[in-house]
Amino acid sequence: MESANAYIITPPSSVAELSPPLTPKQQAESEAYISDADLPPALNPDTDRPVDADIEDNYVQRTLANAKPKPPITWSTLLGEINYISTALIAGVPLITIYGAMTTELKWQTAIFSVLYYFFTGLGITAGYHRLWAHRAYNASTPLQYFLCLAGSGACEGSIKWWSRGHRAHHRYTDTELDPYNAHRGFWYSHVGWMLVKPRIKPGVADISDLIKNPVVRFQQKHYVKLLLTMGFIVPTVLPGLLWGDYRGGYFYAGAARLLFVHHSTFCVNSLAHWLGEQPFDDKNTPRNHFITALCTVGEGYHNFHHQFPMDFRNAIRWYQYDPTKWFISVCYALGLASHLKMFPSNEIKKGEYTMELKRLERVGEEIKWPIDSNELPVISWTSFQEQAKERPLILIHGFIHDVSSFMDEHPGGKHLLSKQIGKDATTAFFGGVYDHSNAAHNLLAMMRVGVLDGGMEVEVLKIEEAQAKKKEQALAIVKDIENEDERRVAHEKAMQDVKRIEEEMQSALLRSPPEHIRNKKAQDYFPPSQQLHIRKAK
Ligand SMILES: [Zn+2]
Ligand SMILES: [Zn+2]
């Protein structure tokens, strides 16, 4: 057994000076909001250690393998499976809103106040609950923390402690059964379903020992119901009442209708943000980026980025993308209320974008028909090329023999320029001698390849070798046809003398014609566009 303090390692004195002071021991709180009993405890109450301090390396696999999911909900078991507090809140708010909208006049002052109160309580969730407490994306001064705590309480989405624990589990076990709002269970389950009924499998463990020690989080946890009622309903009712005499409008519009929008706006981060949009940073899991989601969620719509870089205080990294939560945190930073805004290095962010862009290009490349690989084409001698060019229009360019019959009439420079190159090496003319062809022309030409010329061009040495080999073959062939053994021996001796003479002739011919290939420099250095980019997979 390890001792309770095994995880606290005493640092050397030089480091100790730089380390933050140890936080005094706090009693773990058991108070909670909405089905807290369904979540694992935040701290081990006996030792005050993070719940995952001794987590096994195979925790996820083992937990999923051993989990005994509750049986599916049926009509007969439904009543016992409902989370009554959250269901009453989620179902009651729209009913109150509809009744209020049908019976209450909307004053312009109340309308403006409701929108402002929507952003105030929305930011409490996005800048407070989410980026500050769940992700520690920046440090907030105590006044800012109380401001965000009050604002977030007005959104009526549970305490910071409860919300952050679920959200940390969501990031840690994204798209698995241990994720409390697993997007694979469908849009509506991840939107609200997970709050209406008890979870089928207990969500995975997530440490929030840092939050349990935070005085603001503790303050909220202690007074949560009072704060919820005050910030959720009393303030939005009383302020319009005192300022312009509209208590009723305040209650129905700034209270209920505003709360309905705040609820579904933040619920969209779990549903819409895992369902709609692009994946420019990674496609391993469901999170996606979309402007519409950003609009609906006070800037939490760049969720593909967020799941890749969860501790970054931004969701949107481009200046033109809509992320008011980021703007709010930046203003707080400018005012000295926030510090240590975390940003992932842009070099690491670019790696993700680059990888996804390559994947996209690969898919484009797979739809393109590429020319036949040179290894699959027949190798043809110069003489054979000459003979075959009498039957069909074959032109040699850059070592490849092309059948241009389908292109004779299409050639932009005219048919006559192709006709005069049939059976010839047109490399120099093609590479700028007559016209410096475009990359498109190179690509098109490559599709007409029918063979590779032995030696790559008209080479004297190869022609000599080919002719001499033929002569040797003929000389030896005569011997085979002679039936009398003596005669055959004599003929064989003569044939061998002939072969020797042919070889000597070839040697002197080779000396006269040096084997260096004088190549077209431009053609030698040329790579087709597809190879220049190095994107195509090697076969
Ligand atoms: Zn998510
Ligand atoms: Zn998050």
TrEMBL record:
<keyword id="KW-0813">Transport</keyword>
<keyword id="KW-0812">Transmembrane</keyword>
<dbReference type="GO" id="GO:0006636">
    <property type="term" value="P:unsaturated fatty acid biosynthetic process"/>
</dbReference>
<keyword id="KW-0443">Lipid metabolism</keyword>
<keyword id="KW-0408">Iron</keyword>
<dbReference type="Pfam" id="PF00487">
    <property type="entry name" value="FA_desaturase"/>
</dbReference>
<dbReference type="Pfam" id="PF00173">
    <property type="entry name" value="Cyt-b5"/>
</dbReference>
<feature type="region of interest" description="Disordered">
    <location>
        <begin position="511"/>
        <end position="539"/>
    </location>
</feature>
<dbReference type="InterPro" id="IPR015876">
    <property type="entry name" value="Acyl-CoA_DS"/>
</dbReference>
<keyword id="KW-0444">Lipid biosynthesis</keyword>
<dbReference type="InterPro" id="IPR018506">
    <property type="entry name" value="Cyt_B5_heme-BS"/>
</dbReference>
<keyword id="KW-0249">Electron transport</keyword>
<keyword id="KW-0349">Heme</keyword>
<feature type="transmembrane region" description="Helical">
    <location>
        <begin position="82"/>
        <end position="102"/>
    </location>
</feature>
<keyword id="KW-1133">Transmembrane helix</keyword>
<keyword id="KW-0472">Membrane</keyword>
<feature type="domain" description="Cytochrome b5 heme-binding">
    <location>
        <begin position="390"/>
        <end position="454"/>
    </location>
</feature>
<feature type="transmembrane region" description="Helical">
    <location>
        <begin position="108"/>
        <end position="129"/>
    </location>
</feature>
<comment type="similarity">
    <text>Belongs to the fatty acid desaturase type 1 family.</text>
</comment>
<dbReference type="InterPro" id="IPR005804">
    <property type="entry name" value="FA_desaturase_dom"/>
</dbReference>
<protein>
    <recommendedName>
        <fullName>stearoyl-CoA 9-desaturase</fullName>
        <ecNumber>1.14.19.1</ecNumber>
    </recommendedName>
</protein>
<dbReference type="GO" id="GO:0005506">
    <property type="term" value="F:iron ion binding"/>
</dbReference>
<feature type="region of interest" description="Disordered">
    <location>
        <begin position="1"/>
        <end position="31"/>
    </location>
</feature>
<dbReference type="GO" id="GO:0020037">
    <property type="term" value="F:heme binding"/>
</dbReference>
<keyword id="KW-0275">Fatty acid biosynthesis</keyword>
<keyword id="KW-0276">Fatty acid metabolism</keyword>
<dbReference type="InterPro" id="IPR036400">
    <property type="entry name" value="Cyt_B5-like_heme/steroid_sf"/>
</dbReference>
<feature type="transmembrane region" description="Helical">
    <location>
        <begin position="227"/>
        <end position="245"/>
    </location>
</feature>
<dbReference type="InterPro" id="IPR001199">
    <property type="entry name" value="Cyt_B5-like_heme/steroid-bd"/>
</dbReference>
<keyword id="KW-0479">Metal-binding</keyword>
<dbReference type="GO" id="GO:0004768">
    <property type="term" value="F:stearoyl-CoA 9-desaturase activity"/>
</dbReference>
<dbReference type="GO" id="GO:0005789">
    <property type="term" value="C:endoplasmic reticulum membrane"/>
</dbReference>
<keyword id="KW-0560">Oxidoreductase</keyword>
<feature type="compositionally biased region" description="Basic and acidic residues">
    <location>
        <begin position="514"/>
        <end position="524"/>
    </location>
</feature>
